[in-house]
Amino acid sequence: MTYPTATDLFLDDFCLGQVAERRHVIEDADILTFAGITGDYSPLHVDDEFARRSRFGRRLAHGLLTSSFITGIIGMELPGRNGIYMSQTLRFRRPVFIGDEVLVRATMATIDEEKSRITLATSCLVDGEVVVDGEALIFVPRRPHSQAPSS
Amino acid sequence: MTYPTATDLFLDDFCLGQVAERRHVIEDADILTFAGITGDYSPLHVDDEFARRSRFGRRLAHGLLTSSFITGIIGMELPGRNGIYMSQTLRFRRPVFIGDEVLVRATMATIDEEKSRITLATSCLVDGEVVVDGEALIFVPRRPHSQAPSS
Prior knowledge:
The structure is a homodimer.
Chain A (H helix, E strand, L loop, with lengths): L18 E7 L2 H11 L4 H4 L1 H6 L9 H6 L1 H7 L7 E9 L8 E12 L4 E10 L2 E11 L12
Antiparallel strand pairs in A: 1-3, 2-5, 3-4, 4-5
C-alpha cells in the first residue's frame, strides 16, 4: 500500500519561526472511531441527550482526538520522518464540535543545536479561536556528513 | 447503539492515591486507523523496511496513540462522565511496538477543593517499564446538593 510521503529533513534544515499547518474537519465517524480505539465512550462524546443537557449543549470531540492531529504535522512535515517525538503538552481550552474545521499549526520555537532538539509551539484553532495549545519537543539528528542536502 | 457506561462521580467522591487501570494490546490495525485519522503516515509507523533500518528496528506505535488510551480512563472511570479535561502533559519515554500490551494507569495526585480540580499522574507501561508518563488536570464539579450520593 502506498501512503503519503513524509519529509526527509535534518536539524540543519530548520529556521526559527517556520510554520506548518494542516486542516481537519471533525466528523462524527472520527469521534466514534476514536472512542473505539481508546475506550472513551463518555456520554459527552457519544450520547446526544446527555450532551444536550451538559454545559456544552451538544456532543464534542475528545480533547485528545483534536490534539492527535498534531502528530500529522510532526510525523509528515515538521520535522517529518527523521524526528523522534519526545514530549507534548496540551491545554484543552475550548470545546470542539462535529463539523468544526480544525486548523492545526506548528511553529518552530527553539532549535537546540547542542542537544539536537527542536521545540514547536503547537496549536489547534477553530474559527480563529485557540481550542488546544501546547508545546512539542522533538529530537532531530543532524544531516549525516556523507549525505548531500536535498535540493 | 449502546456503549459502555461511564461513572457518575463528583469531587467529593475521590481520595488521594486512588488508582484506575486499563489494558490495551497495540494492534497493527490501531496504528493504521490512527494514521488515517491523524494523517501521520510517517514510515516509522507504516513502512516495515524503513522502520527496520531505523534505530527502533521495527514499526512502532505513534506516541499519541499510546497516550490516547489515557482518555479511556479519564472519560469512563476516573473521574468519569462529569469531568472536564483541562490539560495533559506527555513524555514519550520508550518505543511501543505492535503486540505490546500497554497498562494505562491513573493515580489521584492532588484534589483541589477550592478550584474543584484534580490532577492525575498518568502513565503507560509495557512489561513494567514506563513508555509514556505525564499529568492530567481535570475539573470535576462538587455533588449537587439536591442529589443523594450513589450507593
